[in-house]
Amino acid sequence: AGPCDLYASGGTPCVAAHSTTRALFSAYTGSLYQVKRGSDGATTNIAPLSAGGVANAAAQDSFCASTTCLITTIFDQTGRSNHLTQAPPGGFNGPDTGGFDNLAAADGAPVTLNGQKAYGVFISPGTGYRNDKTNGIAVGDAAQGMYAVLDGTHFNNGCCFDYGNAETSAHDTGNGHMEAIYFGTETTWGTGSGSGPWIMADLENGLFSGGTTGLNSADPTQTSRFITAVVKGEPGMWAIRGANAASGALSTFYSGARPNVAGYNPMHKEGAIILGIGGDNSNSAQGTFYEGVMTSGYPTDATENSVQANVVAAKYATTSLVSGPAIAVGSAVSFRVTTPGFDTRFIAHTGATVNTQVVTSSSTTALKQSASWTVVAGLGNSQCVSFESRDTANSYIRHVNFALMVNANDGTKQFHEDATFCPKAGLNGQGNSIRAWGYPTRSFRHFNDVLFIASNGGVDTFDATASYNDDISFVVGAAFA
Ligand code: AHR
Ligand code: AHR
Description:
This protein is mainly beta and about 475 residues long. It has helices at about 5-10, 55-65, 300-315, 365-370, 415-420, 470; strands spanning about 15-20, 35, 45, 70-75, 85, 105, 110-115, 115-125, 130, 145-150, 160-165, 180-185, 190, 200, 205-210, 215, 225-235, 235-245, 250-255, 270-275, 285-295, 315-320, 330-335, 345-350, 355-360, 375, 385-390, 395-400, 405-410, 420-425, 430-435, 440-445, 450-455, 475-480. A hairpin with a 2-residue loop joins strand 17 (about 225-235) and strand 18. Helix 1 (about 5-10) packs antiparallel against helix 3 (about 300-315). The mean pLDDT is about 100. The structure holds alpha-L-arabinofuranose (2 copies).
């Protein structure tokens, strides 16, 4: 059985079921998600390998070979057409054209399920999905349940990495107009024990870790790589539960009365569905989503426990975030441009600015050093790497507002993540493309001889599609100095 078969047996059927990694009904053979490629704008739908099975990631890999792909649609598996697509502007604009949010990279969150490769949905700040015209999702004070499987190590303190029920207008229409799972370290409203991240409920104008805002010490910091997050609500009552999605059972972090503040009892749910954003399209949060559902009715703990067992049996596990020629931690490297006409240039820096310069064996020692980098374990994720300047110790290549800079490590989570890159095989077939860990739609790109992290088509001039594959491919060789 799949998670939605279990909810159906419990009398609380799925009314929305979303996953890019697997079918959530044992009989489901339809499309899981759609990807769109950068080279020609063509789309394809990715289905499970077999009924109830894991997504056909190989079909995505071959469709997206030598170009970039974005996830355009996450299909609803229930038959209700509650699909998730690029979120529109609301109370806040997104960064993409027309105020829409960005779409996620199709290969941003690789994992395995029972040893088979699949891709999750890596939400960078500015990324979001939504459906404002749904069918069968709870409205008003009606009961609903939700679970989601998330990356417990990918979060921030922005508002709000959510999955669940929100406003159909994408505007904040008041307390109680949302009931969604939240995951992260946003501390404006509720907190749990420790320093987070926490599973909380976004009930609008408040993330709740328990019956009131503020600390609920029974809501623990999540420490697992994969987590199962549960939020459910019915008249007068709601609950938060959570677990390691790879082993063990759900624990209940809160179960009890609605917040005693106007608007939350009864609730005013509107029935839109959001992923990766807040109800008003707040879009500064980050996180990774693998699968999740919304139900009609308040699931029993026993039903949810059987869903957790099903998730554990799916055996989520990590897989490599890097590909292409190895870039060894401890080595010292240079990056040579591969774009025809520019291929005597190397990535260098002038003060904080990262640029390309022509460097040869007869260049000055200062120039050679400025074009040489020490590879260290990724400051924000040790599966990837960071690049320390050879002439300025403790300064690293990092991005800020999508420009590359050489800055001193200030020790913050933001710096560490901005300085972490996951090299892939070069998109033009040469060397490596150096992808930003926190923005997998973006890689090192030289543009007018200055370095950015660029997406393949986007709102910034440096996102230009012309010459993209060449501009993001660098031959990584020995350092000059
Ligand atoms: O409740 C927290 C957030 O507050 C909601 O997601 C958003 O709509 C509002 O800004
Ligand atoms: O470069 C993109 C983002 O811009 C960085 O993550 C952040 O430091 C800045 O706001």
